[in-house]
Amino acid sequence: MADGRTIVIIGGGASAVYVAVALEEQAERARRQTGADAAPAPRITIVSAEPAVGRGLAYGRADAHHRLNSPAGKMSVTAGDESHFLRWCAEHGHEIAAGDYVPRRLFGDYLEDVFACLVERSGGRVRVVQGEAVDVTTDASGAGVALADGTALDADAVVLAIGNPPPVTWPTGAPLQLDDPWAPGALDAIPVGARVLMIGTGLTMVDVATSLARRDDGISLTATSRHLLLPRVHLPEPAAPGPGLGGAPRPLGRLAAELRAQLREAEAAGVPWQAVIDGMRPDLMRHWTGMSLADRRRFVAHFARRWDVHRHRMAGSVHDELSGLVDAGRLRFVARADPADYDVVVFCTGPGAVTTRGWSRLVDHLLDKGRIAPEPLGLGLDADENGEARAADGTSDGRLFAIGHALRGALWETTAIGEIRILAGRIAAALTPSS
Asked: What integer is the mean pLDDT of 357-365?
Protein backbone atom coordinates (compact mmCIF):
# COMPACT_ATOMS: atom_id res chain seq x y z
CA MET A 1 0.00 0.00 0.00
CA ALA A 2 1.34 3.43 -0.89
CA ASP A 3 2.12 5.89 1.84
CA GLY A 4 -0.18 8.85 2.41
CA ARG A 5 0.53 12.42 3.40
CA THR A 6 3.70 13.31 5.28
CA ILE A 7 3.11 15.04 8.61
CA VAL A 8 5.88 16.49 10.76
CA ILE A 9 5.06 17.05 14.43
CA ILE A 10 7.43 19.40 16.23
CA GLY A 11 7.71 18.53 19.91
CA GLY A 12 8.18 15.32 21.86
CA GLY A 13 5.68 15.60 24.69
CA ALA A 14 2.19 14.31 25.34
CA SER A 15 0.52 16.45 22.65
CA ALA A 16 2.77 14.97 19.98
CA VAL A 17 1.75 11.44 20.95
CA TYR A 18 -1.95 12.34 20.95
CA VAL A 19 -1.66 13.85 17.46
CA ALA A 20 0.23 10.83 16.12
CA VAL A 21 -2.33 8.41 17.56
CA ALA A 22 -5.21 10.51 16.24
CA LEU A 23 -3.66 10.55 12.75
CA GLU A 24 -3.38 6.77 12.81
CA GLU A 25 -6.96 6.35 14.03
CA GLN A 26 -8.33 8.82 11.49
CA ALA A 27 -6.50 7.07 8.66
CA GLU A 28 -7.89 3.72 9.80
CA ARG A 29 -11.44 5.10 9.80
CA ALA A 30 -10.89 6.49 6.31
CA ARG A 31 -9.58 3.12 5.11
CA ARG A 32 -12.64 1.34 6.46
CA GLN A 33 -14.93 3.82 4.72
CA THR A 34 -13.20 4.15 1.36
CA GLY A 35 -10.88 1.17 1.00
CA ALA A 36 -7.18 0.75 1.72
CA ASP A 37 -5.93 1.98 -1.65
CA ALA A 38 -8.00 5.17 -1.48
CA ALA A 39 -6.87 6.08 2.03
CA PRO A 40 -3.17 5.28 2.51
CA ALA A 41 -1.67 5.62 5.95
CA PRO A 42 0.28 8.80 6.73
CA ARG A 43 4.01 9.12 7.19
CA ILE A 44 4.65 10.76 10.57
CA THR A 45 7.91 12.29 11.74
CA ILE A 46 8.24 13.64 15.27
CA VAL A 47 11.03 16.15 15.83
CA SER A 48 11.98 15.89 19.49
CA ALA A 49 14.78 17.39 21.54
CA GLU A 50 14.74 14.26 23.70
CA PRO A 51 15.32 10.71 22.45
CA ALA A 52 12.24 9.37 24.26
CA VAL A 53 8.91 10.73 23.03
CA GLY A 54 5.89 11.20 25.29
CA ARG A 55 7.09 12.52 28.62
CA GLY A 56 7.79 16.14 27.82
CA LEU A 57 7.98 18.68 30.61
CA ALA A 58 4.85 17.63 32.49
CA TYR A 59 5.69 13.94 32.82
CA GLY A 60 9.46 13.97 32.37
CA ARG A 61 10.42 16.32 35.20
CA ALA A 62 7.77 15.42 37.76
CA ASP A 63 8.83 14.15 41.18
CA ALA A 64 7.70 10.69 42.21
CA HIS A 65 4.85 12.03 44.37
CA HIS A 66 3.42 14.41 41.75
CA ARG A 67 0.03 13.17 40.61
CA LEU A 68 -2.23 13.76 37.66
CA ASN A 69 -4.84 16.45 38.09
CA SER A 70 -7.46 14.35 36.29
CA PRO A 71 -8.71 10.85 37.13
CA ALA A 72 -7.11 7.92 35.34
CA GLY A 73 -10.33 7.01 33.56
CA LYS A 74 -10.15 10.22 31.52
CA MET A 75 -6.54 9.93 30.36
CA SER A 76 -6.68 7.41 27.52
CA VAL A 77 -4.58 8.36 24.51
CA THR A 78 -7.23 7.06 22.13
CA ALA A 79 -10.59 8.77 21.80
CA GLY A 80 -12.27 5.51 20.83
CA ASP A 81 -11.17 3.51 23.87
CA GLU A 82 -11.68 5.25 27.21
CA SER A 83 -10.32 2.32 29.22
CA HIS A 84 -7.05 2.02 27.28
CA PHE A 85 -4.92 3.64 30.00
CA LEU A 86 -6.55 1.54 32.72
CA ARG A 87 -5.89 -1.67 30.78
CA TRP A 88 -2.30 -0.63 30.14
CA CYS A 89 -1.82 -0.06 33.87
CA ALA A 90 -3.23 -3.50 34.68
CA GLU A 91 -1.01 -5.13 32.05
CA HIS A 92 2.02 -3.46 33.64
CA GLY A 93 1.24 -4.49 37.20
CA HIS A 94 -0.68 -1.41 38.39
CA GLU A 95 -4.24 -1.96 39.58
CA ILE A 96 -5.77 1.44 38.96
CA ALA A 97 -9.41 2.47 39.26
CA ALA A 98 -11.03 4.99 36.92
CA GLY A 99 -11.25 7.56 39.71
CA ASP A 100 -7.63 7.26 40.87
CA TYR A 101 -5.10 10.07 40.49
CA VAL A 102 -1.93 8.28 39.49
CA PRO A 103 1.68 9.49 39.58
CA ARG A 104 2.57 11.62 36.58
CA ARG A 105 5.68 9.53 36.00
CA LEU A 106 3.45 6.49 35.47
CA PHE A 107 1.44 8.37 32.88
CA GLY A 108 4.71 9.32 31.22
CA ASP A 109 5.61 5.62 31.06
CA TYR A 110 2.28 5.00 29.34
CA LEU A 111 2.76 7.69 26.72
CA GLU A 112 6.30 6.60 25.97
CA ASP A 113 5.20 2.99 25.57
CA VAL A 114 2.20 3.88 23.41
CA PHE A 115 4.39 5.80 21.01
CA ALA A 116 7.12 3.14 20.96
CA CYS A 117 4.50 0.53 20.03
CA LEU A 118 3.12 2.80 17.31
CA VAL A 119 6.59 3.17 15.80
CA GLU A 120 7.21 -0.57 15.96
CA ARG A 121 4.03 -1.59 14.18
CA SER A 122 4.25 1.19 11.58
CA GLY A 123 7.00 -0.50 9.61
CA GLY A 124 8.99 2.71 9.32
CA ARG A 125 6.12 5.08 8.54
CA VAL A 126 6.34 6.65 12.01
CA ARG A 127 9.76 7.80 13.17
CA VAL A 128 11.58 10.19 15.50
CA VAL A 129 14.22 12.69 14.45
CA GLN A 130 16.12 14.03 17.44
CA GLY A 131 16.97 17.69 17.14
CA GLU A 132 15.74 21.27 17.38
CA ALA A 133 13.41 22.68 14.75
CA VAL A 134 14.32 26.30 14.03
CA ASP A 135 12.10 27.20 11.07
CA VAL A 136 9.03 26.12 9.12
CA THR A 137 8.15 27.18 5.59
CA THR A 138 4.84 26.58 3.82
CA ASP A 139 3.59 27.22 0.30
CA ALA A 140 1.14 25.78 -2.18
CA SER A 141 3.32 22.71 -2.79
CA GLY A 142 3.91 21.69 0.82
CA ALA A 143 5.92 22.49 3.94
CA GLY A 144 9.52 22.30 5.07
CA VAL A 145 11.12 22.06 8.50
CA ALA A 146 14.69 23.21 9.12
CA LEU A 147 16.64 21.79 12.08
CA ALA A 148 19.48 23.48 13.92
CA ASP A 149 21.99 20.93 12.60
CA GLY A 150 21.11 21.71 8.99
CA THR A 151 18.74 18.80 8.45
CA ALA A 152 15.80 19.64 6.18
CA LEU A 153 12.50 17.74 6.35
CA ASP A 154 9.79 17.88 3.68
CA ALA A 155 6.13 17.54 4.64
CA ASP A 156 2.61 18.12 3.49
CA ALA A 157 1.77 19.74 6.84
CA VAL A 158 3.40 20.58 10.16
CA VAL A 159 1.95 20.47 13.68
CA LEU A 160 3.45 22.65 16.40
CA ALA A 161 3.31 20.64 19.63
CA ILE A 162 5.98 22.81 21.20
CA GLY A 163 4.89 22.81 24.83
CA ASN A 164 5.08 25.66 27.29
CA PRO A 165 7.39 28.67 27.55
CA PRO A 166 8.84 29.52 30.97
CA PRO A 167 6.92 31.92 33.24
CA VAL A 168 6.90 35.65 32.72
CA THR A 169 9.25 37.03 35.38
CA TRP A 170 10.81 40.24 36.65
CA PRO A 171 13.78 41.11 38.86
CA THR A 172 12.84 40.70 42.53
CA GLY A 173 16.15 41.54 44.18
CA ALA A 174 16.11 38.28 46.13
CA PRO A 175 19.50 36.64 46.85
CA LEU A 176 18.39 33.70 44.67
CA GLN A 177 15.66 33.93 42.06
CA LEU A 178 14.39 30.86 40.19
CA ASP A 179 12.53 31.98 37.08
CA ASP A 180 11.54 28.47 35.97
CA PRO A 181 11.01 25.82 38.66
CA TRP A 182 10.83 23.12 35.96
CA ALA A 183 14.29 23.83 34.57
CA PRO A 184 16.51 20.78 35.18
CA GLY A 185 17.95 20.91 38.70
CA ALA A 186 16.39 24.29 39.47
CA LEU A 187 15.07 23.39 42.92
CA ASP A 188 18.37 21.72 43.85
CA ALA A 189 19.92 25.18 44.11
CA ILE A 190 17.76 26.12 47.12
CA PRO A 191 19.81 26.01 50.36
CA VAL A 192 18.72 23.83 53.27
CA GLY A 193 16.49 25.70 55.69
CA ALA A 194 15.88 28.56 53.27
CA ARG A 195 13.03 31.03 53.50
CA VAL A 196 11.27 30.58 50.16
CA LEU A 197 8.71 32.88 48.56
CA MET A 198 6.64 31.32 45.80
CA ILE A 199 4.97 33.81 43.47
CA GLY A 200 1.72 32.24 42.29
CA THR A 201 -0.80 30.02 44.06
CA GLY A 202 -1.86 27.64 41.30
CA LEU A 203 -1.00 24.03 40.57
CA THR A 204 2.68 24.82 39.95
CA MET A 205 2.91 26.21 43.49
CA VAL A 206 1.30 23.04 44.83
CA ASP A 207 3.93 20.88 43.11
CA VAL A 208 6.84 23.09 44.17
CA ALA A 209 5.67 23.41 47.79
CA THR A 210 5.19 19.68 48.30
CA SER A 211 8.50 18.88 46.62
CA LEU A 212 10.47 21.35 48.71
CA ALA A 213 8.78 20.29 51.95
CA ARG A 214 9.57 16.63 51.28
CA ARG A 215 13.23 17.44 50.62
CA ASP A 216 13.83 19.70 53.63
CA ASP A 217 12.08 19.53 57.00
CA GLY A 218 13.47 22.93 57.97
CA ILE A 219 12.40 24.89 54.92
CA SER A 220 10.02 27.85 55.36
CA LEU A 221 7.48 28.29 52.56
CA THR A 222 5.35 31.32 51.72
CA ALA A 223 3.09 31.73 48.69
CA THR A 224 1.59 34.92 47.34
CA SER A 225 -0.58 35.94 44.40
CA ARG A 226 -2.86 38.75 43.33
CA HIS A 227 -6.10 37.05 44.40
CA LEU A 228 -4.82 34.31 46.73
CA LEU A 229 -7.03 31.78 44.96
CA LEU A 230 -5.93 28.15 45.28
CA PRO A 231 -6.97 25.25 43.05
CA ARG A 232 -10.11 23.56 44.33
CA VAL A 233 -10.31 19.85 45.09
CA HIS A 234 -11.65 16.94 43.08
CA LEU A 235 -14.45 14.80 44.46
CA PRO A 236 -13.41 11.50 46.08
CA GLU A 237 -15.37 9.74 43.32
CA PRO A 238 -16.19 11.30 39.92
CA ALA A 239 -19.76 12.54 39.53
CA ALA A 240 -21.85 12.53 36.37
CA PRO A 241 -21.29 15.79 34.47
CA GLY A 242 -23.97 18.48 34.59
CA PRO A 243 -26.11 19.61 31.63
CA GLY A 244 -23.43 21.79 30.08
CA LEU A 245 -23.91 24.75 27.74
CA GLY A 246 -25.75 23.48 24.71
CA GLY A 247 -27.11 25.57 21.89
CA ALA A 248 -25.62 28.46 20.00
CA PRO A 249 -22.83 30.57 21.53
CA ARG A 250 -24.17 33.27 23.86
CA PRO A 251 -22.77 36.54 25.19
CA LEU A 252 -20.66 36.30 28.32
CA GLY A 253 -23.36 37.77 30.54
CA ARG A 254 -25.82 35.03 29.60
CA LEU A 255 -23.18 32.32 30.06
CA ALA A 256 -22.36 33.64 33.53
CA ALA A 257 -26.06 33.71 34.40
CA GLU A 258 -26.45 30.09 33.23
CA LEU A 259 -23.48 29.04 35.33
CA ARG A 260 -24.95 30.67 38.43
CA ALA A 261 -28.35 29.12 37.74
CA GLN A 262 -26.91 25.63 37.31
CA LEU A 263 -24.88 25.99 40.50
CA ARG A 264 -28.00 27.01 42.45
CA GLU A 265 -29.97 24.10 41.01
CA ALA A 266 -27.17 21.66 41.78
CA GLU A 267 -26.90 22.86 45.36
CA ALA A 268 -30.66 22.51 45.85
CA ALA A 269 -30.52 18.96 44.45
CA GLY A 270 -27.49 17.96 46.50
CA VAL A 271 -25.30 17.71 43.39
CA PRO A 272 -21.66 18.81 43.83
CA TRP A 273 -20.52 21.94 42.02
CA GLN A 274 -17.73 19.95 40.36
CA ALA A 275 -20.36 18.22 38.21
CA VAL A 276 -21.61 21.58 36.90
CA ILE A 277 -18.10 22.69 35.91
CA ASP A 278 -17.33 19.34 34.29
CA GLY A 279 -20.52 19.53 32.24
CA MET A 280 -19.67 22.98 30.91
CA ARG A 281 -16.03 22.29 30.17
CA PRO A 282 -16.50 20.43 26.85
CA ASP A 283 -18.66 23.29 25.52
CA LEU A 284 -16.39 26.16 26.43
CA MET A 285 -14.18 26.04 23.33
CA ARG A 286 -17.22 26.42 21.09
CA HIS A 287 -18.65 29.28 23.12
CA TRP A 288 -15.23 30.96 23.34
CA THR A 289 -14.88 31.05 19.55
CA GLY A 290 -18.38 32.54 19.34
CA MET A 291 -17.68 35.32 21.86
CA SER A 292 -16.98 38.87 20.84
CA LEU A 293 -13.49 40.15 21.48
CA ALA A 294 -14.90 42.47 24.13
CA ASP A 295 -16.47 39.53 25.96
CA ARG A 296 -13.22 37.59 25.79
CA ARG A 297 -11.40 40.51 27.34
CA ARG A 298 -13.99 40.75 30.12
CA PHE A 299 -13.72 37.03 30.77
CA VAL A 300 -9.95 37.21 31.12
CA ALA A 301 -10.14 40.28 33.34
CA HIS A 302 -12.97 39.24 35.65
CA PHE A 303 -13.74 35.52 35.40
CA ALA A 304 -10.69 33.61 34.19
CA ARG A 305 -8.87 33.06 37.45
CA ARG A 306 -12.00 31.92 39.27
CA TRP A 307 -12.90 29.59 36.43
CA ASP A 308 -9.40 28.12 36.36
CA VAL A 309 -9.21 27.29 40.07
CA HIS A 310 -12.53 25.46 39.83
CA ARG A 311 -11.72 23.86 36.50
CA HIS A 312 -8.09 22.79 37.14
CA ARG A 313 -8.38 20.97 40.45
CA MET A 314 -6.04 18.89 42.60
CA ALA A 315 -6.51 15.38 43.90
CA GLY A 316 -7.79 14.94 47.43
CA SER A 317 -4.54 13.34 48.60
CA VAL A 318 -2.56 16.33 47.29
CA HIS A 319 -4.90 18.73 49.06
CA ASP A 320 -4.44 16.79 52.28
CA GLU A 321 -0.66 17.07 51.99
CA LEU A 322 -0.83 20.80 51.30
CA SER A 323 -3.23 21.32 54.21
CA GLY A 324 -0.85 19.42 56.47
CA LEU A 325 1.93 21.84 55.62
CA VAL A 326 -0.31 24.79 56.47
CA ASP A 327 -1.45 23.21 59.74
CA ALA A 328 2.17 22.53 60.73
CA GLY A 329 3.15 26.14 60.06
CA ARG A 330 5.48 25.16 57.24
CA LEU A 331 3.45 26.90 54.51
CA ARG A 332 1.58 30.17 54.68
CA PHE A 333 -0.26 32.37 52.20
CA VAL A 334 0.08 36.15 52.19
CA ALA A 335 -1.47 38.85 50.04
CA ARG A 336 1.69 40.95 49.96
CA ALA A 337 5.30 39.98 50.40
CA ASP A 338 8.66 41.76 50.14
CA PRO A 339 11.13 39.53 48.26
CA ALA A 340 13.94 41.09 50.30
CA ASP A 341 12.61 39.22 53.35
CA TYR A 342 13.33 35.84 51.74
CA ASP A 343 16.37 33.82 50.73
CA VAL A 344 14.82 32.50 47.53
CA VAL A 345 12.04 33.56 45.18
CA VAL A 346 10.47 30.90 42.93
CA PHE A 347 8.16 31.94 40.11
CA CYS A 348 5.13 29.63 40.05
CA THR A 349 3.01 31.83 37.82
CA GLY A 350 2.53 29.36 34.98
CA PRO A 351 3.82 29.56 31.41
CA GLY A 352 3.97 32.74 29.41
CA ALA A 353 2.35 33.12 26.00
CA VAL A 354 3.78 30.88 23.28
CA THR A 355 4.24 33.97 21.10
CA THR A 356 6.60 35.52 23.67
CA ARG A 357 9.90 36.23 21.97
CA GLY A 358 13.20 34.79 23.12
CA TRP A 359 12.24 31.35 24.42
CA SER A 360 12.15 29.51 21.07
CA ARG A 361 14.17 30.12 17.92
CA LEU A 362 11.39 28.47 15.93
CA VAL A 363 8.72 30.80 17.30
CA ASP A 364 10.94 33.85 16.76
CA HIS A 365 11.54 32.94 13.12
CA LEU A 366 7.85 32.29 12.44
CA LEU A 367 6.91 35.61 14.04
CA ASP A 368 9.61 37.46 12.10
CA LYS A 369 8.25 36.10 8.83
CA GLY A 370 4.63 36.74 9.78
CA ARG A 371 3.84 33.04 9.36
CA ILE A 372 2.28 33.05 12.83
CA ALA A 373 0.88 35.94 14.82
CA PRO A 374 -0.46 36.55 18.33
CA GLU A 375 -4.23 36.48 18.66
CA PRO A 376 -5.81 39.75 19.90
CA LEU A 377 -5.56 38.95 23.62
CA GLY A 378 -1.87 38.07 23.36
CA LEU A 379 -2.36 34.73 25.10
CA GLY A 380 -1.24 32.53 22.23
CA LEU A 381 -1.10 32.33 18.46
CA ASP A 382 -3.98 33.11 16.14
CA ALA A 383 -5.72 29.96 14.90
CA ASP A 384 -9.11 28.55 13.97
CA GLU A 385 -11.19 25.99 15.87
CA ASN A 386 -9.17 23.13 14.34
CA GLY A 387 -5.84 24.57 15.47
CA GLU A 388 -4.85 25.80 12.01
CA ALA A 389 -2.46 28.71 12.48
CA ARG A 390 -3.18 32.02 10.80
CA ALA A 391 -0.47 34.25 9.38
CA ALA A 392 -0.07 37.90 10.33
CA ASP A 393 -2.35 38.91 7.42
CA GLY A 394 -5.08 36.59 8.70
CA THR A 395 -4.68 33.93 6.00
CA SER A 396 -4.01 30.20 6.36
CA ASP A 397 -3.00 27.54 3.88
CA GLY A 398 -3.80 24.22 5.53
CA ARG A 399 -0.11 23.49 6.13
CA LEU A 400 0.54 24.63 9.72
CA PHE A 401 -1.34 23.61 12.86
CA ALA A 402 -0.80 23.94 16.59
CA ILE A 403 -1.99 22.19 19.73
CA GLY A 404 -1.85 22.70 23.48
CA HIS A 405 -0.89 25.91 25.28
CA ALA A 406 -0.23 27.65 21.95
CA LEU A 407 -4.02 27.82 21.42
CA ARG A 408 -4.84 29.30 24.83
CA GLY A 409 -6.08 32.60 23.42
CA ALA A 410 -7.72 31.14 20.31
CA LEU A 411 -9.76 28.44 22.08
CA TRP A 412 -9.19 29.00 25.83
CA GLU A 413 -9.62 25.39 27.04
CA THR A 414 -6.63 23.73 25.37
CA THR A 415 -4.11 22.49 27.94
CA ALA A 416 -5.71 19.55 29.76
CA ILE A 417 -5.57 16.06 28.30
CA GLY A 418 -9.29 16.02 27.48
CA GLU A 419 -8.97 19.08 25.28
CA ILE A 420 -5.66 17.93 23.80
CA ARG A 421 -7.36 14.71 22.70
CA ILE A 422 -10.22 16.70 21.12
CA LEU A 423 -7.83 19.01 19.27
CA ALA A 424 -5.67 16.09 18.13
CA GLY A 425 -8.78 14.54 16.59
CA ARG A 426 -9.70 17.77 14.83
CA ILE A 427 -6.18 18.18 13.44
CA ALA A 428 -6.14 14.57 12.25
CA ALA A 429 -9.50 15.00 10.52
CA ALA A 430 -8.26 18.16 8.79
CA LEU A 431 -5.09 16.41 7.60
CA THR A 432 -6.64 13.13 6.45
CA PRO A 433 -8.06 13.05 2.91
CA SER A 434 -11.77 12.22 2.90
CA SER A 435 -11.53 10.20 -0.28
From this structure: 97
Instruction: Strand 157-160: give its sheet, edge to edge.
Output: 126-130, 43-48, 6-10, 157-160, 400-402
Mean pLDDT on 18-46: 86
CATH of domain 6-165+352-431: 3.50.50.60
Buried/exposed 178-214: b ≥16 CB within 10 Å, e otherwise: bbbbbeeeebeebeeebebbbbbbbbbbbbbbbbbbe
Q: What is the pLDDT of residues 81-94, one digit of tens each?
A: 999 999 999 999 99
Range 37-76 burial, b when 16+ CB lie within 10 A, else e: eebbbbbbbbbbeeebbbbbebbbbbeeebbbbbbbbbbb
* Amino acid present at 33: Q
For the chain, percent of residues with pLDDT exceeding 70 = 98
> How confident is the model over 389-423, as pLDDT tens digits?
999 999 999 999 999 999 999 999 999 999 999 99
What is the 3-class SS of the chain, one letter each residue? Answer: CCCCCEEEEECCCHHHHHHHHHHHHHHHHHHHHHCCCCCCCCEEEEEECCCCCCCHHHHHCCCCCCECCCCHHHCCCCCCCCCHHHHHHHHCCCCCCCCCCCEHHHHHHHHHHHHHHHHHHHCCCEEEEECCEEEEEEECCEEEEEECCCCEEEECEEEECCCCCCCCCCCCCCCEEECCCCCCCHHHHCCCCCEEEEECCCHHHHHHHHHHHHHCCCCEEEEECCCCCCCCECCCCCCCCCCCCCCCCCCHHHHHHHHHHHHHHHHHHCCCHHHHHHHHHHHHHHHHHHCCHHHHHHHHHHCHHHHHHHHCCECHHHHHHHHHHHHCCCEEEECCCCHHHCCEEEECCCCCCCCCCCCCHHHHHHHHHCCCCECCCCCCECECCCCEECCCCCCCCCCEEECHHHHHHHHCCCCCHHHHHHHHHHHHHHHCCCC
Q: What is the pLDDT of residues 46-58, one digit of tens each?
A: 999 988 899 988 8
Asked if 6-165+352-431 and 176-232+313-347 have one fold, the answer is yes
Domains of the chain: which residue ranges?
6-165+352-431, 176-232+313-347, 252-311
* Domain 176-232+313-347, second-level architecture: 3-Layer(bba) Sandwich (3.50)
Residue 31: per-residue pLDDT: 82
> pLDDT value at position 244?
95
Residue 435: predicted pLDDT: 46
